[in-house]
Amino acid sequence: MIEMYRVPRVAKILGTKAATVLAMIRRGELPAMLLGKRYLIPSNIFEQWVQKRVEANAAQVAASLGAQMPTKRRGRRAKPLPDLSKYEPLLSRSWKHER
Q1: pTM of the full structure
Q2: Which H or E element spans position 10?
């Protein structure tokens, strides 16, 4: 038997609010069935939908990274660290108060 997800569970899985999931269903982005007053999403269809979205986003990210790879590094260069050898006598002293 196929497990059916309700809107709050899908929202929790996706990390969104239930209202967002309902809006996605009403726009036709997320396949669902209306049973009475509740939308039900079959688990196998939901998993396929998530897989398609992941693949589409991965392809889009790969394409955008390939198109926008900088040829030259921009920005400030890191400054060299200052020479602290002149402070060596101060650093070697004990800073405890003597009585």
Answers
A1: 0.59
A2: helix 7-14
Joined together, the tokens standing for residue 2 give 């196929």
Whether 78 has a pLDDT exceeding 90, the answer reads no
CA gap 24, 42 in Å, rounded: 15
Q: Name the 3-class secondary structure at 33.
A: strand
* Under 8 Å between Cβ of 41 and 30: yes
pLDDT digits (tens, 9 = 90+) for 12-64: 999 999 999 999 999 999 999 999 999 999 999 999 999 888 888 887 777 77
CA distance 2 to 43: 7
Domain residue ranges of the chain, discontinuous segments joined by +: 4-67
The whole-angstrom separation of Cα 66 and Cα 99 is 68
Q: Which ranges of 2-99 does DSSP label H, i.e. alpha helix?
A: 7-14, 18-27, 43-67, 88-92
Residue 43's CB is within 10 A of a number of other CB atoms, namely 13
